[in-house]
Each structure stands twice: as structure tokens, then as C-alpha cells.
Design the sequence.
């Protein structure tokens, strides 16, 4: 009971911890005096390739293709690091437009149409990426993007179309000659913000939780955030009455709602009982409720033409096993629903498939600093 009460109390306590962390960061006022300028490494012997350790969002400054592309990209990266103090990286991507692809519709034999590209070519393109940003909309990212668009690195030269492998350099030079307003932009004037190409697409599409809720569940043994699948089945829901927001003021001395603590307690007891039966069960706690989920699935089933999903047998079996039983009402010809229970704790009347919440990519990025 005491351990579970900490889950509820943790909602208030973590706010205090966050403020302490920020105070600790500001306790050394001499850092700025001795290191007034940000140091960015620029070693000619190193190849600064993009890794999954960079931020989820970066600025694609420009790209190169053809003979000398890698050298020009490397020279630009060194200049951006040395002269502009920017964390610049290289990323290579291969393109193949020589193979056939499946088009829309069918041919006269009833087979999918086979299409070919207008130009059958294969090539590598090397991009120069800059920065590490948690959010696409962050002020720092937008400010850097505008600065890069107006920069004139010596590496790219005054006439980018003369002896360069930079993509579309000739077109940009022609635009400057025809449009005087384009003079404000430099050779990287077409820069834009992209996702880190080394991070999986799931990082940007998943149902991620905020750092506060993530820390709230960090001490739970069978934490739903540890579920390796994309989907699970929510079989029990326990709601509290108090919602704390880390971004808003709160009374640190206020008592946590008994119903919130009871919700966490019931979820934990139910998961413990299910685990003793060998069931893959998980618990999850947020600001206003605690839930219990069963199973780990990469897919819910097959989507039909009408848009509905034909549930996979394993998913349907979990929903049936923990869903309410249909029982006859005494002295009546009608039927009702009786929730199933385990150890005196009831399951939901209708279990439902849900996305497995994942750790916030922003929190994972910030935790490295």
C-alpha cells in the first residue's frame, strides 16, 4: 500500500524534483566566464556522420551528388563547424530508379500494372544536416533555419554552379539572375527541417507519453512502457479524481486523492494476480487513472474493404477471456452482463485494443544532457 501510495504522491513530488534539477543547472555561474563560446569540434580527419544520438529534428542545409560530392560535403561540414559553430553532419542515401514498380490498376491479364520510371538511373546523394532539436516548431530550430538560408560559406563559392556537385546549384544561380529578391538567400537558401533519418518512423507516429508520466511509471516492475509490442488489450480501468499538471501551480502539501491511490492499488494487485497465472499483464498510471493491459501484439488483424478490422485470433481471444459474461436475469427472460473478476477486482465489461504508449522521444533526447 505504501509503495502504491508513492505512485499517487509522485505526481506532486516529481514537480519538486524538476525544479531542483533546474536549480542545480544554474548553480555554477563561472561556466559562462570560462566558456563564453560554444565549442564545436572540426577535425578534418573525422567523418561526422549522422547517428540516432542527434536530435529528432534537424535542418537539411543542402545536398551533393556526383563526382566530388563527398569531399564537398565534408568541406562544408568542417566550415560550418569551424566558422559558424554549428553541429553539422553527413548522411548518404542511395536512389534506384532502374527497377519496375507496381502501379495502380490491373493489366489485361488481371495482374497489377508494372510501371517504369521515366529515367532509369541509380545514384547516391549526400546531405549536410545541421543541429539537434527536440521539436519541429522550436524557436531555435526556426531561427537556425533562417540563418542557414542566408549564409554564404566559402566552401560553396560565389558562383555555386561553377564546378560543384551541389544539387540544383545551377537552377539557384539562374533564379538569382532572374529574381533580384532572391539575392537575400545564399547557396543554402532552399534549406528545410527534416526528421533525423536514422530514427525509426515509429518514433514520430507512436502514442508517446510526456516525461512526467514516464517518470511516474519508472518504478513499476511490469510497466506498460516496457511492452515490446505496438498494441495490447486494455482489460481493466481504475479512475481517480485528482489531476496534477507539472506545468501549473499546485499545493505541495495537499493530500493525494484516496481514489487515485486506490486506483493504483487495484491495478497493481490485478497485474500481480495475473502474472502469478502466467499472464503477460502490465499496469500503467497517469494523472487521472490506472489501467491494466494484457498481451503484446504487432498487429490487430486484417483491415477489410469497409475499413473495419478483422481482429487477429490472439487479440480476439484476450478480449473474450476478460470481457463480461452474458447471464440470464433472475425471474426474467432477458439477459444481462456480469463483469469478470479476479481476487475481488473487476475487469472492464468490454476490453478494447489500444496502442502501447511509448517513451517520449523528446524526453529521451533531453535525458542525454
Sequence:
Amino acid at each position: 500500500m505504501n509503495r502504491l501510495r508513492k505512485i499517487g504522491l509522485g505526481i506532486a513530488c516529481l514537480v519538486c524534483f524538476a525544479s531542483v534539477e533546474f536549480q542545480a543547472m544554474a548553480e555554477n555561474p563561472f561556466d559562462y566566464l570560462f566558456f563564453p563560446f560554444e565549442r564545436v569540434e572540426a577535425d578534418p580527419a573525422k567523418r561526422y556522420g549522422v547517428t540516432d544520438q542527434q536530435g529528432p529534428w534537424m535542418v537539411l542545409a543542402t545536398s551533393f551528388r556526383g563526382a566530388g560530392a563527398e569531399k564537398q560535403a565534408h568541406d562544408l561540414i568542417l566550415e560550418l563547424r569551424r566558422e559558424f559553430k554549428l553541429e553539422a553532419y553527413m548522411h548518404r542515401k542511395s536512389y534506384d530508379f532502374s527497377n519496375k514498380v507496381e502501379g495502380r490498376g490491373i493489366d489485361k491479364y488481371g495482374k497489377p500494372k508494372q510501371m517504369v520510371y521515366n529515367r532509369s538511373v541509380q545514384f547516391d546523394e549526400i546531405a549536410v544536416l545541421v543541429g539537434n532539436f527536440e521539436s519541429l516548431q522550436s524557436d531555435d530550430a526556426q531561427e537556425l533555419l533562417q540563418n542557414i538560408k542566408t549564409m554564404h560559406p566559402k566552401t560553396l563559392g560565389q558562383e555555386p554552379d561553377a564546378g560543384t556537385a551541389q544539387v540544383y546549384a545551377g537552377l539557384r544561380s539562374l533564379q538569382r539572375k532572374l529574381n533580384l529578391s532572391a539575392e537575400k538567400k545564399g547557396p543554402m537558401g532552399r534549406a528545410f527541417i527534416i526528421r533525423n533519418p536514422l530514427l525509426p518512423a515509429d518514433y514520430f507516429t507512436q502514442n508517446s507519453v510526456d516525461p512526467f508520466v514516464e517518470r511516474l511509471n519508472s518504478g513499476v516492475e511490469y510497466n506498460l512502457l516496457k511492452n515490446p509490442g505496438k498494441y495490447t488489450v486494455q482489460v481493466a480501468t481504475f479512475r481517480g479524481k485528482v489531476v496534477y499538471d507539472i506545468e501549473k501551480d499546485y499545493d505541495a502539501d495537499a493530500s493525494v486523492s484516496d481514489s487515485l491511490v486506490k486506483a493504483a492499488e487495484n491495478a497493481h494487485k490485478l497485474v500481480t494476480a495475473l502474472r502469478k497465472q502466467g499472464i503477460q499483464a502490465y499496469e500503467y498510471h497517469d494523472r487521472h487513472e490506472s489501467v491494466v493491459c494484457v498481451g503484446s501484439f504487432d498487429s490487430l488483424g486484417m483491415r477489410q474493404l469497409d475499413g473495419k478490422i478483422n481482429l487477429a485470433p490472439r487479440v480476439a481471444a484476450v478480449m473474450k477471456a476478460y470481457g463480461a459474461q452474458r447471464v440470464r436475469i433472475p425471474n426474467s427472460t432477458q439477459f444481462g452482463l456480469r463483469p469478470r473478476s479476479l481476487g475481488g477486482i473487476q475487469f472492464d465489461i468490454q476490453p478494447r485494443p489500444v496502442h502501447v504508449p511509448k517513451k517520449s522521444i523528446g524526453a529521451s533526447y533531453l535525458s542525454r544532457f
